[in-house]
Each structure stands twice: as C-alpha cells, then as structure tokens.
Amino acid sequence: MRDVAIIGIGVTKFGELWDRSLRNLFVEASLKALDDAKASKLDMIYVGCMTSGLFNGQEHLGALMADYLGAAPVPAVRLESACASGGQALATAVAAVGSGLYDVVLAGGVEKMTEVSGGKATEALGAAADADYELFFGATFPSLYAMMATAHMHAYKTAREALTAVAVKNHFHGSKNPNAQYPFEITPEAVLASPLVSEPLHLLDCSPITDGAAAVVVVPLDRVKKNKRAVRVVGFGQATDTLALHQRKDLASIPVVAKAAEAAYKMAGRKPKDIHLAEVHDCFTIAEIMSYEALGFCPKGKGGELILKGGTRLGGKIPVNTSGGLKAKGHPVGATGIAQACEIVAQLRGEAGERQVKGAKVGLTSNMGGSGASAVVHILEVNK
Amino acid sequence: MRDVAIIGIGVTKFGELWDRSLRNLFVEASLKALDDAKASKLDMIYVGCMTSGLFNGQEHLGALMADYLGAAPVPAVRLESACASGGQALATAVAAVGSGLYDVVLAGGVEKMTEVSGGKATEALGAAADADYELFFGATFPSLYAMMATAHMHAYKTAREALTAVAVKNHFHGSKNPNAQYPFEITPEAVLASPLVSEPLHLLDCSPITDGAAAVVVVPLDRVKKNKRAVRVVGFGQATDTLALHQRKDLASIPVVAKAAEAAYKMAGRKPKDIHLAEVHDCFTIAEIMSYEALGFCPKGKGGELILKGGTRLGGKIPVNTSGGLKAKGHPVGATGIAQACEIVAQLRGEAGERQVKGAKVGLTSNMGGSGASAVVHILEVNK
Chain-centre distance of CA A293, in angstroms? Predict the structure, then answer.
C-alpha cells in the first residue's frame, strides 16, 4: 500500500440546525474540504452515515451527495458502522487511495438527527444495538452505558467525580471551539444537578442529539510531499466485538478499541507514549475513561485517576478531545469519526487557535460503534 | 493494484422466508461461501444492505454479522448504495484485496424485506429515490420506472411485447434455478392479465419483495493461480447520476450503467462483444432492456428487438439473467449485486446445471441503484 495523506478538511457548525438539510450539511463540509485541499478533481466519495433511513427517510446517500455536490458521475458509496460510520469512511478512503485505484478521494460524514422527536431519535440510535436481543427488551444506549459505568466503578473504584471531570473538561475545551454545539463551560455542580438519565449517568454525562457534517480529502503522500499543511495517515486499525453487551466477558472495558488501536499502532510503528493528543469517542463520560485505558494512555482501571489529575486537559500530558468531544462539540453520529480527524489535522497544522496543543506532531482518533461492537483508530502525523 | 479472484460463493434460498432472520440469512450465505472457498482465515467483511433500519430496526450490520458468523474481532462494515449495495460491497472488497491490505475478504449482501407490510416495504424502498423531491410528492419506484418505460416506448417504438418477453424469459431461466423465489415459467398472457401497477407496468413486469442473502470470498489471484474453480475479477467500474429522475436529460436511457460499464471494460481490456453472458438489474422489465443498450449488447433503442429475437435467452448470442434475474429469482435488495456475481462464477466454473451457458469464459454483472442514480459493473473471467 502506498503512503497516504489528508490535504483538506471541512466541518460545519454542529447543533440543532432547523434550517439545514442532510444533503445541505454534507455539501457544505465537502466544499470546505475540497477548497482547503485546492482539489481540481475527485475520483471517489465515501459517505459515513448511520441511520438516515430512520432519521430522514433517505438512503442512497453516496449518489445523493455526489449529485448535490455537482460531482456525479464520480462514484460514491455510503459506509455504515453505527457511530463509527465516519471512521469507517476514512479508513476505506485511506485503503482505496493506498491501493493506487484513486488519487483524490473525499471521505465525509453526516447525520441530521433533529428531524424526529427525542423518543424517535433514541429509537433510531438504538438500531446500533442488537434489535432482537437488546432493544426488544427495552434497552437504550444510556442504559447500556450506565451498566458499563457501574461495572467500571465497581471493578476499579472509579469515582463519580471522574465522570463529572470528563464532562467539565470537554465543555472547557468546547468553549474554545466556535463550531461546537455547546461552546460554553459547565461546573461539576451543574453535572450532578442535571437530571438522572440512567443511574449513574446524568444528562450532562451524555452526548447530545446533533445535526452536522465533516469531510476530509485524502491523496497519495507523494503528491503533497513538500506541503506542510498535509498530514500523513501513518496507521489505522479496525475491529469488531459482540453487538449485545450481555455477551461480553467484561462490562468494565472496551476490548474492541484496544484491538483496533493495536492494529493502528503496529501499522504506524508507534506506541501509546508517542501520541501527543487524541480525539476519543466520549458518547458518554464513562466511554472516554474506558478509551484512555483501551488506547494505552494509562493502565487498566486507572482512567478515572488520569482525568482527575488533569492529564487529558489542555496543557496535560496527553490532551484528549480538544475539540470539545462528542459531549460539548456534539455527536452527529455519521460525522463524528471524520470530525475527529479534522480536529487532529487542524492541531498538527498548528491551526487550532485557542485550543492549540503546543508542539503536537502525532495525533490519534478513536471512533466507536454502539456499546463497543465496532471501532476504528487512526494515527496521524505531521508531514516532514 | 494486484490481481484478484473470487474463490468461494454462497447463496440462500430466495423468497418469503418467514422463519429466517436478517442475521441468520447472512450467516448461511457466508458459511456456504467460506466452505466453498476452503478459507481458513478471514481478514475483513463487507456487508451490502440497503435499508435494514427501515425493514428491521437494525443498523450496525458489519459488527452484527461478524459477531453471528463467529468472526469477531475481524473488522467489518456495511456498504449502502440502495439496490447496488451488494455490487458496492464486492467492488470495495476487490479494491481492498487489490491494495494488499487484506488477503481473504468476505463480501456479502442481505435484505430481509418481509418483516413489514407491503405498503411499508414500498415506502422503505422509496428511500433509494430523492425523499425531498420525489417521495414527498408521492412517487414510488413502479411509477418512476413506468415513466422510463413510457419514454423508451415513445422514443424507440419499443413494443409492449418486448417488456413481456423479458418477464417470460427470466421466469424460463428461473424455472431452472432451485434457489429462485418463483422457479416456474409464465406465459405472455399471464403477464398482460396481471394487475396494472403503474401504466405500462403490470405486476409481472416488477421484481418482487424478497428475503435472501449471498456471499463471495475474494482473495489475491496469486494464491489461487492453479485453481480452476477460482474466477478472476478482471475489471470493475462505478458511477453516479442525479438521484431524482426529473433532473435527467433523458428518461429513455440509464447513462449511469453506461459509465460504470465503460470503466469496467477499460480496466478489463474487454469490449461488449467479448462478453459471453451477463446478469443485469431487471428490477422492472424495462430496466433490463435499457441495460442491454447501456452495456453495449445492442445499439441504443434496439433493446426491445434484442429480447424479441431471443438474443438474451439461454442458447442466444448473449444469455442474460440465466439465474432468473431479479424478476424470477427475487430481489433481496442488498443481496442482489452479490447474487449476480455468484451466478456468473457458477457459470464460468461450468457448475450452473440445467442453465449452463456452454463455453462461457467471460461474464458481466450490472447492479444498479434507484432509478439509475448509481451503478456497479464487474467483469469476471475463467482462471487460465
């Protein structure tokens, strides 16, 4: 496989965007990325989206987006792996450019979630879990992650304060990101005072319902060898696990992320200690803590300590979710994996403004589907 | 890109399979394909499925199928391009093996359509069209293809008898396929006596609602160089067009198939006259006639003549849809593109039984999404 780089990025505002449509959001992010890349041609489009059928009554997103982007007859297809759909679109684009088949590929992600009521949105998102063996019995994602949080607190004496600290940190980071859905800080008291959704998870432990899109342009490295704004994709890894939580051996960890990371580290020839910053999948606060452990940023069971000591805050030893994460930036499901890559690219270019991590040269994205049934990890590096 | 071959195929019975589930069907086809391939490892799984969210309340099909296949943590992802989802899964698998990233890849397709009522199924399938600009105004797929049929009949004086002949031929072929949903012959009189769905299309001009799955195993050619049951994938092509029919310049043709075919012929170094048999996307009888023209099997406007002269019947100059096609074999949407490849592989191996095309050495599959907004064409050849 030949070496590959990201040369353009584009992100829309994330939020409740009542006046924007699914296609309109995707096209905005894509045009920004193509403009940033100064791309004059396009060979293939990969669209990450989880459940536009249930949210928007619309499938066939590859052709739809190629059409509205004015790019048809360029081939296009949608990739779906629940909340890891964006990461999968990126991984597939990297493999396709790596194969030599295409030279300029757009990998974008989108979700327009506010077209249905809150209850319907929870139902649509539930389609990432096992419909026959989890949803049928009343499970929802907050309740699945609540069980995982309880298991982690039981196994490792993880403090409630650790969950709270994740939400507070990510809102602090998000306050520096104008595209975030909630670009403001919150207090630990506010987290605990927010309604209990599923014990121990409060409303402010949960990522929100969001509209938004993100896109990147992937090209062979040899086309952008001397371009300092190009960012190299040096490794990626993917894995799966049982869809249903009750079939896992351990509820207090997410082995799918560890497996995907192992493959990515191996491909990149890197170790956890080489990573300067990361965007991880904090769909719920406990997921961020478990991700620290799965990615090797701290030993198993020590994720709570890492956040409480400030290790993952801007200025800490490994800042995590400088974008605000899914919690504060928002979580338009299919867009999330691509938006993570956009944040790391901006950081490695030194273009992250107030939230810039100084000297960042190697970054990681960790995008996860469902309660940990699929994961995609990418490792990005500055262009030497 | 290195050369690639299909070494295993598997297809389930197609039909109204009330006692079978989405996952169960996929696993059956996959195990058959893996067994046929004598595969001892698996590196990646691509699942083609159009709209399991709307049919089954289930997304995240990559991980679900990896899980139920007992293959997790092998990475897996779903590909969606409406009715061309299966073809896209195959194309993505071919590119991934071609890149050198994976050595043994499963590309499968599935749709379980009978879990909802007929009206709901038409609505779910409608998600392949433009939800905002077609469905909202009441369009359904039979009505869109009826307009295309009318345009073709007007532009080229295509006879009603030509449409009828497609249905009759495909049921004749399907009568020789034990896995077909409707493995029996029909008469021209029966086609005309069947209820009018959308003028000029009668019920027997339309492909049915079907449950089913199909799978193939893709490997590098150098691993199976001396294996006569391996079939080489010598070319593939993809393209997109406007999602909405009213935005096309011409309703009497499907340029997206012509563009995908052009790319596939170029990659394979082949011309239409080199093709010995083909599986094409006869979601409605008119679509098969337009496909003949788009694929270069006859001049533009002459598709009606080709079928009426028997050129595409078993024993004709280029047999089309020896499997029974979508019409008689059935059309479990996400499975269709893969099932087409399974038929061509069986034919090129000389294992097609009563429907064997003698001396078949080069075959083509043409899988289309929506009313012609996306298409994927593959060219397969016997292993020398």
Answer: 17
